[in-house]
Amino acid sequence: MVMAESPFSHRAAEESLPLREAFAVLFFVSVGMLLDPEVLLKDTAVLLATVLIIVVGKSAAAYGIVRLFRRGHHTSLRIAASLSQIGEFSFILAGLGMSLGLLSARGQALILAGSIVSILFNPMMFALAERFSRRAQAAA
Fold it and tell me: Span of the secretion signal (predicted)?
């Protein structure tokens, strides 16, 4: 907040960009190393169900909540698409669930694989949201 009001805010953002990208690389490398390929091969049906719950469930919930705030269809679709994946916080929660004995190793592996697949689907969700938005505008 303080930096945003400073005349140096743009310079600080530009200079921190390489650091942000380095951390993004570390994040995706570490997530890739945690991925159990066996989940992709042996638990394909359960993984697809997990991904559907993540992508469709979160998108529908986000769309509904945004519509409750009386925002337009286009805005609701964009927000739903942007929230259709899960990320690093889910890894923390899954790890905590495992350490407390609430989640099995298989469950954690499914959450990790589901999050990776949902992140990969995210650009497609934005394309679908734009297509649905254009159709709704054309029909109106």
Answer: none
Give the Å distances, CA to CA, from 53 to 49, 57, 61, 107, 124. 6, 5, 11, 14, 16
- Judge residue 50's burial from the number of C-beta atoms within 10 Å of its C-beta, 0-12 exposed, 13-18 middle, 19 or more buried: buried
pTM of the model: 0.76
CA distance 109 to 11: 41
How high is the pLDDT of residue 4? 59
The two tokens of residue 54 are 């993540």
Q: Delimit the domains of the chain by residue range.
A: 1-34, 37-139
